[in-house]
Amino acid sequence: MNERLLDRRRFNALGATLGLTLPTISAMTLIQSPLLTAARATPRTAGPTVKLPDGTVVPAIGQGSWHLGQGRHPAAAEEEALHMGISLGMTLIDTSEGYGGGRSEELIGHVIAGEHDRVFLVSKVDHATDIARACEASLRRLATDHLDLYLLHWPIRDADLSAIVAAFEGLRAMGKIRAWGVSNFNVSDMEGLFRVPDGHQCATNQVRYSLNRRGIERDLLPWCERHSMPVMAYSPLGGDNNLLVSDPTLVRIGKTHDCTAAAAALAWAIRSGNVIAIPESGSPAHVKENAVALSLKLTPQDLEALDAAYPGPSSAN
């Protein structure tokens, strides 16, 4: 790994975005330490995996947490569900500072207390005014000293992308995060990101993607594939109400594989090898069903049937 210092312009932008003054942060702390990076062990994975641009390997199916920690399920059930997912190989856990005002992060922090090395931990920042402070708050709620991946939750119109990237790179250099990425960016947003210094360091783009929401196949998914960047798919079961779990075609395909429609839908979402699906569940039973997708291989006939039921963008033209 090459070690280098930020130039003066980007250093100043970093300081402004982080909310720090020059005496507070020295140039030496902005050097990415190979020893520190090597010390952060990547959690073991089981089943299909996806490789991030820096070579880190993560499971193709992780766990989302949009509604966790907010009373939708008993807290004990949600904790058990997260534990079960980890034990079954769904070791990537995604959260955000905005989920339940931080309660999702607090729940996850309790579940992984003292065992961060077992998971690949992802969180998101909603605002770019003080990324460093937001990161520290997430780290406190998660009871950990670093995030494996930190995402900008939404595109921020008219924002200084170069300053945002510099802030992420500064956090990475200080060991607060191992990698950074974005969420809900379209192709135009991604092209703008790649035009700023270090924008190409983006590790992933987290977007909505499921059998009934295939729009990214038209442009964003191919763009990310060309740039060797995986997509992280939220709502892979069809949205807030998991619309796909009762779909007749998926139910039929599930029966032929002795699994649920949910497992079939997740296997479809990760079929390309460049997508990480992050279904959410506060139910241990549902987590167990989802994990079956890690060992499920859909047949060409299955895929043809699903294309017929839910035509992709190319089929619609």
Average per-residue pLDDT, rounded, comes to 87
Strand fraction equals: 5-15%
Shape: globular
- Helix run count: 13
The total strand number stands at 9
Based on secondary structure, the structural category is alpha/beta
Low-pLDDT sequence parts: 1-42
Describe the biggest sheet?
A: 7 strands, parallel
Main sheet: which strands, in order across? 3-4-5-6-7-8-9
Percent of residues in helical segments?
A: 25-40%
Radius of gyration: 20 Å
Helices and strands, in order, run as HHEEHEHEHEHEHEHEHHEHHH
Termini gap: 45 Å
Give a structural overview.
- Helix content is 38%, strand content 11%.
- With 317 residues, it is α/β, with parallel strands linked by helices.
- Strands 3-4-5-6-7-8-9 form a seven-stranded parallel beta sheet.
- β6 (180-183), α7 (187-194) and β7 form a beta-alpha-beta unit.
- α3 crosses α4 (103-111), α3 (75-87) runs parallel beside α11 and α9 (248-256) packs across α10 (261-269).
- It is globular and about 50 Å long.
- The protein starts with 7 loop residues before the first helix and ends with a helix.
- The model is unreliable at 1-42 (pLDDT under 50).
